[in-house]
Specification:
heterodimer, A: about 900 residues, alpha+beta, elongated, B: alpha+beta, 3-stranded antiparallel beta sheet
Chain lengths: ~900, ~110
């Protein structure tokens, strides 16, 4: 059929509907008339003829309906009519519509929030060309139990030269530099990178050029710098003519040769300088992070095999340093979100899935209840020739419309919630700041809206035309609820309770582990502590300038009345790095593997400032010198303070004070006397076990740069004093990362807090929905049974027995749901095990509390309908019939 | 009144019958129904519930055209007639039927 004709008929059928319908009416009318004429001509009584004609026609309405169904545009027309009809139905029942839409909006809003966070953190690709080929490389020493270490400089160059599976391999190293000549002195991140770094990532500068390979060969004298985009915008004034200009880093001029495009935070807010190849590169010190870009068509496994081959060569060529060397390769997708973050986001996604399911069950329940009340209407429609498929569609349409409203409302809710989350600066979820309602999230919303619409409409739709027309027409007014739908509704309630149990257990476990985390004994004190860092230029490491500066600082601080104690450490606890070494007692047998202990350079006042208790021996004093000899000086007597657990490990059953320890075992083998033992501390934050630590004394060639002050009252009140003090000593020294120590700890548990808060909110919503579910079903079924209860009362049932009956009816599905939920939670809790801290996945207390909470809510939901039933007046109730 | 025949209309049979009947002259609905009964020896009695949907479907497919006119007994009636596309369709369907009949006859050993 030609297109224009098809369009014409489509138009004729859809647009001037009245005319077409009238035409059809007339046609069928004339058919009937002629049929009648025919009968009369055949000699039938005119009255009988009319009746026979009608019988033979078989129902004018059905015929018309059948014609409408085959017409082009029938789909559009009937769907339009159904939408209008459903909208009318929803408007007639505003309480159901609003309640349903709100419930769905809560479920969908939560889902959308979690999905947009999930999408930002896990699905959005890295801003690199072909990011699937970018990987991260690590050295391993499986023989010593080290399965993820940084690269040594020499091993990196060897890998780069000898591999056959990478397009490019690059190394980088975080460094800090003092940027001067741009207003106040600032400490900035200046990352040393090998020349191929940006080619490995697949990033090209938007201004200027990349580092050339010649700059890799130029040693350290090649002073060029590339700026990250945000750095360029914020600190270099987004100067378009920046190329060729010079920056002063650590008092040396660097020429700007490039500016990077906008990107992830970690390539955005810093400077890059080439680190250059050295023939005599170090093979003993693990310092460099290494990334690689797989050659086209090379799989990660092929690359692993290739690296294994090189490892064999290296182990043979350099047995001293590379014995047992291996390599570990990880996809770059883990850069954004760690495995635990991934796990947490999956758990949250599962949780909102359950929440949405609960909302669906609730809507299904509401529609079911209404469907029973509407059986007459549906029976009438069937009698008028509506096909079964159309009826199902009609009921479905309602739930689809409802979930459409819910999704719209949910999108608005999610938008608001996301903004609130972003404004409140809940940290710990990567890329949270870019999470928002984008096309992907919108698509997700549409998808779940359709899914929930179909899901919540399924039970009511299947039930609608099930019973026979005649039966429904007759039964319509009967006042007892039939058993079938009642049982279905009870099953839905059961499902809701079970799902709520799952969510509540999840939330309970996470909240409990979060409180455990907050109450974990850190070893050091966090209250009234100020931390800040001062970065010192290279010149401070010469001629004792740095140590003089530190001592002057301590001296001045001791004069500040609000500062009770002051000290400094090389690596800030919880937030800072955690360098380590093999440590043992010097008399220790060589057979045992040396424990890995972290090392920290500290000033004598550090222990008191951070509140680490002295258990044995003494703290450092000014007579203790750094363990590293100064150039041209004799090796000083080395003295160290160690943590309690390390003391117990390497000096079991002995007094460690006065004993000798071997530091950097297998690397430098420094012998040092233990002069004191201090309490254990969780250097890596509350979620990690207490660390083994060796404290080393500071000195001219060992400068701690992280200050810790014990203050009287609010620590941040001292911050201005600190800044002006440092500026008065050297205006070129930047003070950075000024925080209270409590905030440091607070930040470190941000992911756990995020999970606990979100899951807590979701389970609260689940509880609310389940409660309305139980209440709704019970009060509906009680109102259907009014006459029955009236009869019972008339026959002498006591108020108490009516109440017991109601509660029995309501609590049965709740109890079964609780049992099912318990089993489900026990089975599912294994997936949250890695997120827990100090709580077992099957924590009896949590399970019992959740069960009690659900029981209590269910009872409360039963009470109101029960009381209403109890007050049923027999006379009134029976009169309804 | 003859007993209604149980011969169910084969799928697609109705269309070709309507086309065939209309190939002679324009007709209204009841006329089509009666003519089909006549030409098939009362084997097929088409009810309004099947006839009208088929007519409207075929009209939309462009095989038929309709117009209002006077019936033989001076009643207003809607007349259907074949279009050129309808005649092509009839020829195609008749050919197809011939093939089917031949195939079925040989398969079922009907002489």
């Amino acid at each position: 059929m030609p297109l224009w004709r098809r369009l014409k008929t489509l138009w004729r059928n859809v647009a001037p509907k009245k005319a077409v319908d009238a035409d059809l009416d007339a046609e069928i009318g004339s058919y009937r008339q002629m049929l009648e004429d025919e009968k009369i001509r055949a000699g039938a009584d005119p009255l009988l003829a009319r009746r026979e004609a009608l019988l033979e026609l078989g129902g004018a309405e059905q015929v018309k309906e059948a014609v409408r169904d085959v017409r082009a545009g029938a789909g559009i027309e009937t769907i339009g009519a159904e939408v209008r009809q459903s909208l009318r139905g929803l408007r007639r029942n505003p309480s159901l519509t609003i309640l349903g839409a709100v419930m769905l909006a809560l479920g969908m809003g939560s889902s959308i929030v979690v999905f947009s966070v999930f999408h930002a953190a896990l699905l959005r690709p890295l801003p690199f060309r072909d990011s699937g080929r970018v990987v991260e490389l690590w050295e391993t020493r499986q023989d010593r139990g080290i399965n993820q270490a940084s690269f040594t400089e020499a091993n990196f160059w060897d890998i780069r030269a000898q591999n056959h599976s990478f397009e490019e391999v690059a190394a980088y190293h975080y460094d800090e530099a003092n940027l001067t000549g741009f207003g106040q002195a600032e400490k900035v991140t200046a990352i040393s990178v090998s020349a191929g770094f940006f080619r490995t990532l697949g990033v090209s500068p938007v201004l200027g050029r990349d580092f050339s390979y010649e700059e890799d060969r130029g040693g350290w004298s090649n002073h060029v710098v590339i700026a990250g985009n945000r750095f360029w915008r914020n600190r270099l004034g987004a100067d378009p003519n920046i190329l060729g200009k010079s920056l002063r880093l650590n008092d040396r001029p660097y020429t700007v040769v490039g500016v990077l495009p906008r990107g992830e935070p970690w390539i955005n807010d810093q400077l890059y300088v080439p680190f250059g190849y050295r023939a005599n590169a170090n093979r003993g010190s693990w310092e460099f992070a290494v990334i690689g870009r797989l050659a086209r068509g090379v799989s990660a496994d092929t690359a692993r095999a290739d690296l294994q081959r090189i490892a064999g060569v290296l182990a043979q060529s350099y047995p001293k340093d590379d014995k047992g060397i291996g390599f570990h390769l990880e996809p770059s997708s883990t850069w954004v979100a760690s495995n635990n973050t991934r796990r947490a986001l999956w758990v949250l996604l599962g949780a909102v899935g359950f929440l949405l399911l609960i909302a669906c069950l609730n809507i299904a329940n509401l529609l079911l209840a209404r469907g029973t009340a509407r059986q007459r209407e549906i029976a009438v429609r069937m009698a008028l020739g509506a096909s079964r498929a159309r009826l199902v569609r009609f009921v479905m349409m309602e739930s689809l419309l409802l979930s459409g409203f819910g999704a719209t409302l949910g999108l608005a809710l999610a938008y608001g919630a996301l903004r609130a989350i972003q404004v409140s600066e809940i940290r710990g979820i990567p890329r949270l700041e870019v999470a928002g309602v984008n096309p992907w999230v919108f698509g997700f919303a549409v998808l779940i809206a359709m899914l929930t619409g179909v899901l919540s409409g399924l039970a009511p739709a299947l039930q609608a035309p099930a019973s026979g027309i005649a039966a429904s027409l007759r039964e319509g007014e009967r006042q007892t609820g039939s058993r079938g739908p009642g049982r279905l509704r009870a099953a839905l309630v059961m499902g809701e309770v079970a799902l709520s149990f799952l969510l509540l257990v999840g939330a309970g476990l996470l909240i409990r582990s979060f409180t455990q985390l907050m109450n974990a004994n850190l070893g050091f004190r966090t209250e009234n502590r100020l931390v800040f860092s001062v970065s010192m230029p290279d010149t401070y490491w010469r001629k004792g300038i740095g140590k003089q500066f530190l001592d002057r600082c301590f001296q001045r601080l001791s004069g500040v009345p609000d500062v009770l104690a002051a000290g400094a450490v090389s690596h800030r606890p919880v937030e800072g790095g955690d360098p380590g070494m093999g440590s043992d007692s010097s008399s220790g047998s060589g057979a045992r593997r040396a424990p890995w202990a972290g090392w920290r350079v500290v000033s004598p006042g550090y222990f008191r400032a951070i509140g680490l208790p002295l258990l044995r021996g003494r703290f450092f004093d000014e007579s203790d010198k750094p363990v590293w000899a100064e150039r041209g000086q004799p090796v000083p007597p080395r003295r160290v303070v160690i943590s309690e657990r390390l003391a117990k490990l390497i000096f079991p059953n002995e007094d460690p004070v006065g004993k000798h320890a071997l530091l950097w075992k297998g690397q430098g083998n420094l012998d040092a006397e233990v002069i004191g033992v201090v309490g254990d501390s969780r250097e890596r934050g509350p979620a990690s076990d207490p660390t083994l630590t060796v404290y080393l004394p500071y000195g001219p060639n060992a400068l701690p740069t992280e200050f810790v002050l014990h203050t009287r009252g609010n620590p941040l009140a001292v911050a201005p004093t600190v800044r002006s003090m440092v500026a008065s000593l050297d205006p070129n020294l930047p003070v950075a990362d000024v925080r209270s120590f409590e905030e440091v700890v607070h930040r470190s548990v941000a992911p756990q807090r995020f999970n606990a808060i979100l899951l807590g909110v979701f389970s609260g919503l689940a509880l609310l929905l389940a409660t309305t579910g139980i209440y709704g079903v019970l009060s509906y079924s009680m109102s259907r049974r009014t006459s029955e209860i009236g009869l019972r009362v008339a026959l002498g049932a006591s108020a108490g027995s009516i109440m017991r009956m109601t509660i029995g009816q309501g609590m049965r599905p709740a109890l079964i749901g609780i049992v099912l939920g318990g089993v489900g939670a026990w089975w599912l809790s294994r997936y949250v095990a890695t997120l827990l801290f100090g709580v077992k996945p099957f924590d009896i207390a949590t399970y019992a509390a959740v069960a009690a909470l659900l029981l209590a809510t269910a009872l409360a939901a039963c009470y109101l309908p029960g009381r209403r039933a109890m007050r049923t007046d027999a006379a009134v109730a029976l009169r309804i019939e | 009144m003859p007993a209604p025949s149980n011969t169910a209309l084969l799928q697609g049979t109705l269309d070709v019958l309507i086309l065939k009947v209309l190939a002679l002259e324009p007709m209204h609905g009841l006329g089509i129904s009666r003519r089909i009964a006549q030409v098939t020896g009362d084997a097929f009695r088409v009810k309004a519930g099947s006839l009208f949907p088929a007519l409207h479907r075929m009209e939309e497919a462009g095989w038929l055209e309709s117009s209002w006119g006077e019936s033989e007994n001076n009643r207003r009636a809607k007349y259907y007639q074949l279009t050129r596309a309808g005649r092509r369709q009839l020829k195609e369907e008749v050919d197809q039927w011939a093939r089917i009949v031949a195939a079925m006859a040989s398969a079922l050993d009907i002489p």
